[in-house]
Amino acid sequence: MPREILVTSALPYANGRIHLGHVVEHVQSDIWVRAMRMAGNTVHYVCADDAHGTSIMLRAEKEGITPETLIGNVWKEHTADLRDFGVAYDHYSSTHTDANRKLTYRIWRALEQNGHVESKPVKQLFDPERQMFLPDRFIKGECPVCHSKDQYGDACEVCGSTYNPIDLINPYSVVSGAKPVEKQSLHFFVKLADFEGLLKTWLEERRAAGGLQAEVVNKLKEWFADGLRSWDVSRDAPYFGFEIPGQPGKYFYVWVDAPVGYLAAFKELCEGGSKSGLAAADFERFIRAGSDTEMVHFIGKDIIYFHTLFWPAMLHGAGLRMPTAVNVHGFLTVDGAKMSKSRGTFVNARTYLDHLDADYLRYYLASMLGPTLADIDLDLKAFEERVNSHLVGKWANIASRCAGFVHKLFDGKLAATLPETVHARYDAAAAKLEACAALYELRDYAAAIRLIIEVADEANAYVADHAPWVMARDESKRDELHIVLTLALNYFRLLTIWLAPIVPATAARAFAFMDDTPADFEAALRPLLGHAIKPFQTLVTRIEPKNVEAMIEASKESLAMNPTQGSPSPLPSPTNGRAGKNAAPESHTMNDTSVPSKPSSSSSETISIDDFAKLDLRVGKVLVCEAVDGSDKLLRFELDAGELGKRQIFSGIKAAYTDPGKLAGRNVVFIANLAPRKMRFGVSEGMILSAGSGGADLFLLDADDGALPGAPVK
After folding, report:
1. What is the C-alpha to C-alpha distance for residues 681 and 672, in angstroms, rounded to an integer?
2. Higher pLDDT, 25 or 1
3. 3-state helix, strand, coil in the chain (%, to 5)
4. Which stretch of DSSP H or E encloses residue 276?
5. What distance in Å separates the CA atoms of residue 649 and residue 629, rounded to the nearest whole number?
6. Lower Cβ count inside 10 Å, N or C end of the chain?
7. What value, to the nearest 5°, has the Cα angle with vertex 659 and ends 654 and 660?
8. In angstroms, rounded to a whole number, what is the distance separating the alpha carbons of residues 577 and 584?
9. CA nearest 268: which of 105, 90, 9?
10. Residues contacting 127, CB < 8 A, separation 6+
11. Based on C-alpha coordinates, what's the Rg of the chain?
């Protein structure tokens, strides 16, 4: 049965340009929306700028304009960038709207009336010069654990420790440079403990229904270990946001009204007239508890807690429906590393668009996107090669080799019928690609592309085997040639239909050439026969290395800038949860006070037992060990890690083990909590320990036979 679905993407913060990290998510959601519509469903697609917070206020002040002017200017930039990347929102709004204010107040008053709000005094750091309380990210100082300088007030980017801003050594205000003082203020909290049982049930239900990835649910369980504590939802003036009703000088924390912005944008769409096909009453139909509609969010893994704990609790506490699904994606890296301004790999959307076609990046990202939280690496060489090979060499090549003969010899018309055997060949290809509909819904775009390219290879082999350029010389083979060309161009149309959600602008040009506008995936079941096509014009061109190089050069900033240290962890710590690419740059905590990590007394020669305890050492049983093609150093291990499941690890010990297959069956020791690393050959999920000086002088550590896979090493 057709479904009715509201789809949203996480709100870009209105304090900077859209960059390629944002593009990953908006493209992922846009592909899903297009595919779900082509599958026959009704989808409403909305987003907005996240326009509140201290950062907005301070940037506007620095530029000598009002916050409203700032967010208005950024909104124009964001909407243009997303539009030109083919991201087709039905409505793109801002959280600084009257609709969002009214809806935030409605939800807040319901939470108050239902007894889910409490207030209590909180100690915070206060800037005496600017007369303002400082969010954690606006305080810097010396890390109390590793003593690194200039670390943020909530966490150290060098050692990864989290702490209370009050515990920073020699703290200073990022706003004024002044030394902050402690000051007490009354804050308001949502009592998340009221929703603990509900949230546990909802998470498991969403996991079972495919609405939340299992790895997300498993990570969220850490929050319940000591019980959910109240969530601080207020900030003190001066602050750019919505003032809390009845509380002068108190404002909603940006993460209160930001997700409400999803619903406010949809409300504006419903009230915007007949163009949307919706009416004001449809909004209430969508948001009521028990609604038979769906609400699906796409987000990055840095803001999971807001969307899977805080947001569902707010909705339920206000008597409204909870999300049907929260689809989480990984971070974007470029050439295997974090995006870097100095290397030119921190690329704004507009800089990319100034040099390359949007559909090229959409295609490459889709070829890397699956339903997991794995990070996506933009390997610039692979990007160039994949687009040139797939879109130019395999897809467009079919039409470019055949269309001219149709116009030259058959008045631009396809054959009216196909022989039964040829028709059966088309039917088999169409049936194979029907599986793409389910793959799109599962967000396994990479698998869908593999299937599409498999059929593209079949089509190209068919054309090569029949060689229409040779057949055209023999007038006795005209009828046969007409059939060959008709099937080839129907292969092309078939592939285009299934590629359309990924490369919409390119597909539109292809459909214009075919003089055909398929409305849904069902159109792929029937070949186009007796139909006149337009003269062929170039649909895609090869990516030239010089264009990629020009984009990188345009993105570079001064090498004198300090590069960002560290790399994103797979999921933020539940005691940290710092804002990421989609979030406002302010910290949040579940507690009104946080317990800092205890500083360790360390030197260059010794470490404490606490430092050693950070390593999760495990026993792994080698299931597979093999050399890696194209590498002189690496072996690929597949380990049985017991309760941790299977792990793939690449280890640079090839010189020490010339017959790696013999390692299968033995035990090894590996670090299980090392952040996964995206490599050219795949993702490495840990580090295997060995002894020796290197090269051929390396020996794997072993464990006695009684040690089971996954056993901790202590």
Report:
1. 20
2. 25
3. 45, 20, 40
4. none
5. 15
6. N
7. 60
8. 12
9. 90
10. 133, 134, 173, 175, 176, 178, 180
11. 28
Q: Collapsing DSSP states into helix, strand and coil, what is residue 438?
A: helix
pTM of the predicted structure, to 2 decimals: 0.78
CB 603 within 8 A of CB 699: no
Query: Is-contact 48 95, C-beta < 8 A?
Result: yes
3-state secondary structure of 158: coil
What is the mean pLDDT of the segment spanning 147-172? 86
Q: Please report, for residues 70, 147, 300, 579, 608, the alpha-carbon distance to residue 565 in angstroms, rounded to integers and kept in the order given.
A: 29, 16, 20, 16, 24
| Alpha-carbon gap, residue 458 to 264, rounded angstroms | 48
Whether 254 and 83 have beta carbons less than 8 Å apart is answered as: no
Query: CA angle at residue 300 from 26 to 73, to 5 degrees?
Result: 50
Biggest CA pair distance of the chain: 94
Write the pLDDT tens digit of every residue in 478-517. 999 999 999 999 999 999 999 999 999 999 999 999 999 9
Given pLDDT bands bounded at 50, 70 and 90, which one contains residue 299?
very high
Structure tokens at 57: 């206020």
Average pLDDT over the chain, rounded to whole?
A: 89
Give CA–CA dist 644/593, Å, rounded: 33
Q: List pLDDT tens digits, range 31-49.
A: 999 999 999 999 999 999 9
* Helix H or strand E segment including 234: strand 234-236
Residue 176: phi and psi, rounded to 5, are -120, -15
All domains of the chain, ordered by start, with CATH? 4-114+204-231+253-349 (3.40.50.620), 379-525 (1.10.730.10), 615-700 (2.40.50.140)
Closest alpha carbon to 23 in 90, 71, 92, 87 = 87
Handedness of CA 232, 237, 243, 245 (dihedral sign): positive
Three-state SS letters, 558-589: CCCCCCCCCCCCCCCCCCCCCCCCCCCCCCCC
Q: What is the pLDDT of residues 572-627, one digit of tens each?
A: 333 333 233 333 334 332 222 222 222 333 333 466 666 677 788 999 999 999 99
Could you write out the DSSP letters of every residue in 601-659?
---SS---HHHHHT--EEEEEEEEEEEPTT-SS-EEEEEE-GGG-EEEEEES-GGG-S-
Q: Which two tokens stand for residue 651?
A: 């280890």
Contact 154/163 with Cβ under 8 angstroms? Answer: yes
Structure tokens belonging to residue 253 = 């924390």
Q: Is the peptide bond between 238 and the residue preceding it cis, with omega within 30 degrees of 0?
A: yes
Q: Which has the closest alpha carbon to 21: 584, 581, 676, 679?
A: 581
DSSP letters of 60-97?
HHHHTS-HHHHHHHHHHHHHHHHHHTT---SEEEESSS
In terms of C-beta distances under 8 Å and separation of at least 24 residues, what long-range contacts does 284-293 make, across chains too? 286/6, 286/321, 287/263, 287/320, 287/321, 288/320, 288/321, 289/316, 289/319, 289/320, 289/321, 290/321, 291/321, 292/4, 293/3, 293/4, 293/5, 293/6
Give the 3-state DSSP-derived string for 332-398, with helices as H, strands as E and coil as C: EEECCECCCCCCCCCCEHHHHHCCCCHHHHHHHHHHHCCCCCCCEEECHHHHHHHHHHHHHHHHHHH
Kindly state the helix (H) or strand (E) to which residue 457 belongs, with its residue range: helix 445-466
Q: Would you call 473 exposed, middle or buried from its count of C-beta atoms within 10 A (0-12, 13-18, 19+)?
A: exposed
3-state secondary structure 119-135: EEEEEEEEECCCCEECC
Q: Residues 575, 162: contact at Cβ < 8 Å?
A: yes
